[in-house]
Amino acid sequence: MTTDEVLAGVGPRLRQMRKEREVTLAALSETTGISVSTLSRLESGLRKPSLELLLPIARAHQVALDELVGAPPAGDPRVRSKPIMMGGRTHWPLTRQPGGLQAYKVLEPKRRQEPDPRTHEGYEWLYVLSGKLRLVLGEHDVVLTAGEAAEFDTRVPHWFGSTGEGPVEFLSLFGPQGERMHVRARPKRS
To answer: Which residues pair with 143 in a beta bridge?
Structure first.
């Protein structure tokens, strides 16, 4: 629906709303401070609606401005994403827009791994939904459990994964820099 089509529907909607509430133009004029002639021209489409006119009318009718304008309903807000397998983990994207903050639900299977800390530009947030998540961050080696969160500068060498006791499900959030390639913090031991 174009802007012109939305605006063309405002007048008839204003008239219908006023009549349903059994309010006269004179009574609405008194409540809003808008002249009867201006209200009449708005309803007939001879006057283009503006926020200055619509806000007092919305207040008088005790409705949201969207209801007066007849704004199209927002699309389905649910994010329907397909799981992505990366490095033995299953990732479900929770954001749709490229760039900016990215959010993922991650399922790490039960497995024992040798930590391999990496660094990159950015900041990361982790929130454990279920299970235990091992986080190696610089000199720290901690285990996060359900309901615990961690946030850190990703320029600090870091690694996270299963403790080996069972699978772990967690949320991971990071900015655009977090999408860049991870760089090894130290060479792998041979």
So the answer is: 134
Q: Which two tokens stand for residue 88?
A: 């033995």
In 3D space, the residue among 177, 175, 183, 179 whose CA is nearest the CA of residue 159 turns out to be 183
Strands 118-119 and 183-184: antiparallel
Query: Percent of the chain, pLDDT > 70?
Result: 85
CA distance 47 to 44: 8
- pTM: predicted TM-score of the whole model, two decimal places: 0.55
Q: Which residues pair with 137 in a beta bridge?
A: 140, 158
Number of neighbouring beta carbons within 10 Å of residue 28:
21
CB-CB neighbours of 9 under 10 Å:
14
Under 8 Å between Cβ of 95 and 161? no
Model confidence over 126-181: pLDDT tens digits? 999 999 999 999 999 999 999 999 999 889 999 999 999 999 999 998 765 544 43
